[in-house]
Each structure stands twice: as C-alpha cells, then as structure tokens.
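Hey all, quick one. A colleague (J.T.) asked me to put the iron/sulfur cluster job into the tracker so the inputs and the structure tokens live in one place instead of scattered across chat threads. No bug as far as I know, just bookkeeping. Sequence used:
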Amino acid sequence: MNLKKSLKLFLGFFLRWTGFPVEPTLLKIGNPTKESPVFVTCNFNLTVKRVLKALKDLDCYLLIAPSNGINVWCGACGDDFHTDSVLSIIKTSGIDDLVEHRTLILPQLSAPGMDPISIKKKSGWNVKFGPVYAKDIYSYVENQFNKSESQRIVRFPISKRLEMASLYFFLLFLLTSAVYWIVAIFLPILNLFLYLDTVLILIGLIYGPMLILPSITWKTGKLKIWIYEVIALSLIILFNLFIRFDLLYLIWNIVASLLISLIMAEDFHGLTPIFKSEIGAKIWKKGGDKMRFLFGEYKLQPYGQITLERDKCIGCKVCIEVCPRNLYAFNKDDDKVDLRNSEKCINCNACVKRCLAQCLEIK
Ligand code: SF4
Ligand code: SF4
C-alpha cells in the first residue's frame, strides 16, 4: 500500500464522524456476468474498503450509493443513506443494462432508511437485505443468499469498543492539545508535565468506560458514562489531594476531567444506534414528563416499548430479516411471528418501518 492510500485509510478511520466520502459509482469485481449479484453500499470511505475486501473472491457488481460519506447504520438512521440514494445510483450507474436479474443486495443495517416497495415501484429492482457485517458476505453468497442467525445480529465486542474509543481519543487529543497550548501562551504556569497529565486523563476517561461498558448495570448511554467519569474524577481528586499535594495540578485536573467527561457523556448520545441516551427514559419513568416544560421533548423522550399487533401480522418475515437484535421468531403453528425479549429492543426502527402490515409500533 502506498503512502497516499495509507494516509487516506488513516484519515477515513479517524474522521468518520465528519463523513469521508468516495465518489458514488459502479464497480466491477472479478469477472461479472449478466447473472452476477449486485451489492449496494454507502459512500463512506472505510466501509467501501471493507466491502471491497469482503468481495474480492466473488464475481459481482458493487454500487456505491451517495450517503454524504456517512456509514451505513448511522446514515440509514440519520436520513443520509435512504431510498433515494439507491434510486439515484441505479439510474446513474447503468446497472440495468449489465445484468438480467433485478435483485439488489443491501446491507441489513440500511433497513431503517430504505423503502423496498418504493424502490421496486420506481426502478423495477427488488431489495434483499444481506448480512450485518461485510465479512459475512462471502459465506452468505455460498449459502445461496440465505443469512444465518448470527449474520443478522449486531454485536459490540471489545475490538469495536476500542475502535470507537480510538476515534474519540484522536479527535479529543487534537482538540485538547490545541486548546492547551493556546492557553499556555497566556498562562505560562502551564507546562509540559501538566500537558502529559491531560493526555493521561484523556486516555483514562475515554478508553476506561469503553472497556467496562458491558459491566455497568445501566442499559446504555450517558448515565453509564457519567457513573464512570464521576468515579474517575473522585480518584483523580484523591490522588492530587493526598499523594501529589499540588494545588495547580488539582485545579487543572478537575477542570480537564470535567470538560472531557462532559464531552464524552454528551457525545455518547447517538454514538451508534445501539448506544442512545437513557437518562431521559429514567427521568420519564420517575414522573419527569411533568417537567417537560423544563427539559423539552427531546431530553425526556424515553426508550419506547416495541409492540406487535399479532392479529394483523401476515407472516412476511421482514422483521426477522431486519432486526439486528434477533427479537422475532416465526411461529409455524399460525404462520405469524412472535416478539421475544422486547426489552432488548434498541429502537432502531427497522422493523417498524419495514413491516408490510404496519402491525409494529414503538410506544
Ligand atoms: S425490534 Fe427493536 S431492535 Fe429489532 S428491528 Fe425493531 S426496533 Fe430495531
Ligand atoms: S414484518 Fe410485520 S407482518 Fe411481517 S412478519 Fe413481521 S410483524 Fe408480521
């Protein structure tokens, strides 16, 4: 890999929040024929790289649809990767003339943003939702385009959490360093050792919560982060009060920790569709709806309860195909689905939007 490509990959990894687009286009992978599968992905640089790696042993087409350079799930939930993105790349790529079939394979996590019926109506193409992760595409194709249960589920293992932590660290490191050295011009008491202290605090307050996330009792969000940050801040204060005995370090560490904690906790909302703020839900349950005038609708919006009106279900199985938590099971006795462990729902809305009988709702 040459230097330019490495730099692009590096920036694509660390600047994914700001969007890092590649040109929407059609790519031929291997030696595709008129029967070859057609995959669709978003135009976020890093996703395209990962999908290309996953497709390298296949003969197929890849449509890179416009999503403002945002990744698939965030793009689909945030209205950057949607039906019109797919319609536009179908129209501009000339894929209609390259294959004889009319089936597009989209990433499963794009489901909240896509309307397959509208795509079919306006372009003639059917939509099939493939696996959650690009690395599973090959085995999905080998398995005659059928997803296994594990290929439908989103996970947040330690590797992914560390990846997220590194994104936070990179951005906050740049921001903190810039602020620190600008302030240091006017406050000469700030020195290199204090700066290193700040970097250590940054590492502790960012990587720590990400590592222990699953073991903190609260389900998700900023409350979890705050619990960790408050404990860490207390330890920092105790260390400065009883071991280092330095007022400057004490004050500086408190200011730096609070600022970093605030950014972490606030920004954690919406980090991924899995990790949303739960504090609003807690307040709501404790009667916080009466304080709506103070907090506004947004902050008090609780995690909704997913509900299924079973009588209306037509057994189309779309919810099974799109739910990243695997909460639906087909019941052969009456050809309808059952909703299980509904408390694990992350309100991604994919099933609600895709249900053909409109029998799902988040209340
Ligand atoms: S049940 Fe919840 S997690 Fe599953 S698709 Fe529906 S909204 Fe998303
Ligand atoms: S998507 Fe709706 S109609 Fe289809 S199986 Fe699920 S609940 Fe039933």
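Adding what we noticed when we looked at it: The chain has three domains: 3-152, 158-268, 306-362. Residues 141 and 343 are 32 Å apart (CA to CA).
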